[in-house]
Design brief:
64 residues; 0% strand; elongated
Length: 64
């Protein structure tokens, strides 16, 4: 009997995980469509600069 309870809890967490993944994908697609390709490219370039992987590798240069 306790095995069926744990399976139910496992199925519940799996359903919550799947719902979160689907909502995340929908939100990501909606955000990228709303921002547009140019703004998204600019945002990704800024994130890469903070990480030090773009042509201006330092955060202090990005903040100027």
């Amino acid at each position: 009997m306790s095995g069926s309870i744990s399976n139910t809890a496992g199925e519940h967490w799996f359903a919550v995980f799947c719902l979160g993944a689907i909502l995340g994908m929908v939100a990501g697609v909606g955000l990228s469509v709303w921002l547009g390709e140019e703004e998204l490219t600019r945002l990704l370039r800024s994130v890469r600069r903070i990480g030090g992987d773009d042509s201006n590798p330092h955060f202090d240069m990005l903040a100027q």
